[in-house]
């Protein structure tokens, strides 16, 4: 199938759950994506917040909302967003991944995913299958796992991976604009590698001098590796939300593939 008939792949920097509501730069772009991308039959959502040993896929026909945040306004917890699941898609994902994944239904739809999809598809009319990230997997294994998901893109399935390239909550500065120098350098280096299609450099991110500060744990970076693996070499890369929140959380996001 030609590139223009494949669903794109998205890596979304989700940032604070506050981005889900109100008028802000992050959700303005998510709303725009919902209008520009042809409507998918289903979404495979790879969440940085569903951290597991091994990879798990939710196989039920529902998606209970997980309020995995604390100290935020009550209206975020009260927000209702629960699109249907897709057991058929989940089964296909498990077949594509083989021994690399298994069914798991102890989790639901967390804020890394519902904050984005609530803005892309506010009517909750697109089925969603949740997939976890294996926090112990090596970068090349995550990339390879993503590559096994590529056939879904020719079946009108949108692959949405949500995390943050730079994610250091301990260093977050909630009162100052911009990014720390180390956060900006690391984010820029990863962006240049993604734009160049240099998957090896992205997989070897730990060699970057700023990696220890930018990626103190792998959970929020791992979805990027899966998303990049699901891209084809001929895919156009589009960068959006290229900024930092709280100086230590990168919102930089990517789309692989053509969209209107």
Provide a compact summary of the structure.
This protein has 260 residues and is α/β, with parallel strands linked by helices.
Describe it.
This protein is α/β, with parallel strands linked by helices. It has nine helices and ten strands. A hairpin with a 3-residue loop joins strand 8 and strand 9. Helix 1 packs across helix 4 and helix 5 runs parallel beside helix 9. The chain is globular, with a radius of gyration of 17 Å. The mean pLDDT is 94.
Backbone shape: globular
* Quaternary class: single chain
Proportion of residues in extended strands: 15-25%
Distance between the termini: 18 Å
Uncertain regions spanning at least 5 consecutive residues: none
Total strands: the figure is 10
Element order: H for helix, E for strand:
EHEEHHEHEHEHHHHEEEE
Largest sheet: 6 strands, mixed
> How helix-rich are the residues, as a percent range?
25-40%
């Amino acid at each position: 199938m030609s590139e223009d008939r494949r669903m794109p792949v998205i890596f979304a920097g989700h940032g604070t759950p506050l981005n889900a509501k109100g008028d802000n730069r992050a959700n303005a772009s998510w709303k725009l994506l919902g209008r520009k991308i042809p409507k998918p039959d289903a979404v495979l959502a790879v969440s940085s917040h569903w951290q597991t040993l091994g990879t798990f896929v939710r196989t039920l026909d529902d998606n209970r909302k997980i309020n995995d945040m604390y100290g935020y306004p009550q209206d975020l917890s009260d927000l209702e967003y629960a699109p249907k699941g897709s057991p058929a898609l989940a089964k296909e994902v498990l077949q594509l991944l083989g021994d690399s994944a298994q069914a798991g239904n102890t989790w639901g739809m967390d804020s890394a995913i519902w904050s984005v999809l609530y803005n892309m598809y506010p009517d909750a009319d697109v089925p969603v299958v949740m997939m976890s990230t294996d926090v112990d997997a090596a970068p090349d294994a995550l990339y390879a796992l993503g590559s096994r998901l590529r056939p879904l893109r020719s079946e009108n399935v949108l692959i949405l991976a949500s995390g943050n390239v730079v994610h250091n909550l301990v260093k977050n500065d909630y009162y100052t604009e911009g990014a720390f120098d180390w956060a900006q350098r690391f984010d820029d280096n990863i962006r240049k590698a993604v734009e160049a299609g240099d998957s090896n450099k992205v997989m070897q991110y730990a060699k970057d001098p700023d990696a220890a500060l930018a990626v103190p744990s792998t959970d929020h970076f791992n979805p990027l590796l899966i998303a990049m693996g699901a891209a084809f070499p001929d895919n156009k890369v589009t960068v959006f939300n290229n900024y930092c929140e709280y100086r230590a959380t990168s919102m930089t996001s990517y789309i692989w593939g053509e969209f209107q």
